[in-house]
Amino acid sequence: MIEPSRWRKTTVVALFMALGLFSTTLIPKALVQSASAAPGGREQVLSVFSPAMAKSIPVWVLRAADPGRPVVYLLNGVDGGDSGGSWAGRSDVASFFADKDVTVVVPLAGRSSYYTDWIADDPILGRNKWATFLTRELSAFIDSTFNTNGRSAIAGLSMSATSVLNLAIEQPGRYQAVGSFSGCARTSDPMAQALVYSQVATFGGNAANMWGPPGAPGWADHDPTLHADRLRGTALYITAGNGLPGQHEALNDPSINWNVGALLDRETVGGVLESVVSQCTGQLVDRLRSLGIPAAVTLRPAGTHSWPYWQDDLHNFWPIAAGAIGA
């Protein structure tokens, strides 16, 4: 395949930057380097060492009230959460799960990484072995430290909406439920690769170090639409808007708080982005249906690429996830 044109990549990069998003084993004692706890003891930020990446990863955790409970993993968008765009900071995740007896885990890193194992170190983004960290290192630590029951759900938005599907495909049975919100799952055609290149470039990375140059086998290997049959048996919730202004595009919406500039930005940049991912989401849904794989799907008649809709998506995903993980 031909590398995406420079103008296309530049345009999409500008859009994403403007939006500002986008088996258990014994755990070495050194894996957890430090922890800070909020009053009350259930909410804390851990520094978890990843041997695969040779660095510590900050992880926000809301601990279940009781032992032997399942886990919900939430992945952030293109900034990985270390620039403030995290589930913990941009949604009501703490209050929403306060009365739900599950452990909630939000890694606060991974910008432009697609939360995947890269084939080469990147000069800017460094070593990325996120699939290994999430499915082996972090999950083993969480299960052991918080005495979980080994059952878990995972959800992601924008960039990580693709990641959560790939993680479930690569590790069948690791997650009993997957929520993919406003993502572009297809990665193996030229337009989709342009989108991926743009997201990786947002923080200076080169996607050729992730899955190889355009057309390399790694792109098809990480295309959930091509491997959707491996999602069979997993509870799925797939969502997207269509880019038109919706219920949260209003000056009195709490996420806008009468900020005219923020509203215009959301309606323009967020609208364009969501119109793109809407097409990708439709492709994924069509693929699942052609395979006879059940999935709960919400294709909103309006809505932009923005946090209030993803918070709504998480609320709607919860009953599906709870049923799958026995929460």
Number-wise, the strands total 9
Query: Globular, elongated, flat, extended or rod-shaped: what is the shape?
Result: globular
Helix content: 25-40%
Mean pLDDT, as a whole number? 89
Major β-sheet, in short? 9 strands, mixed
* Count of discrete domains: 1
Whole-angstrom Rg: 19 Å
Text of the CATH class: Alpha Beta
- Strand-residue fraction? 15-25%
Q: Termini, distance in Å?
A: 45 Å
Report low-confidence residues grouped into runs of 5 or more: 1-39
Please tell me about this protein's structure:
- The chain has 327 residues and is an alpha/beta fold.
- The protein has one domain: Alpha/Beta hydrolase fold, catalytic domain (Rossmann fold), CATH 3.40.50.
- It has 10 helices and 9 strands.
- It has helices at residues 6-19, 87-90, 93-96, 130-145, 159-170, 190-201, 208-211, 217-221, 260-290, 307-325; strands at residues 32-37, 43-50, 55-62, 71-75, 103-107, 152-157, 177-181, 235-240, 296-299.
- A 9-stranded mixed sheet has the order 1-2-3-5-4-6-7-8-9, sandwiched between helices.
- The protein is globular.
- Residues 1-39 have low confidence and may be disordered.
- InterPro entries: AB_hydrolase_fold (IPR029058), Esterase-like (IPR000801), Mycobacterial_A85_antigen (IPR050583).
- One of its GO terms (molecular function) is acyltransferase activity, transferring groups other than amino-acyl groups.
- This is Esterase family protein.
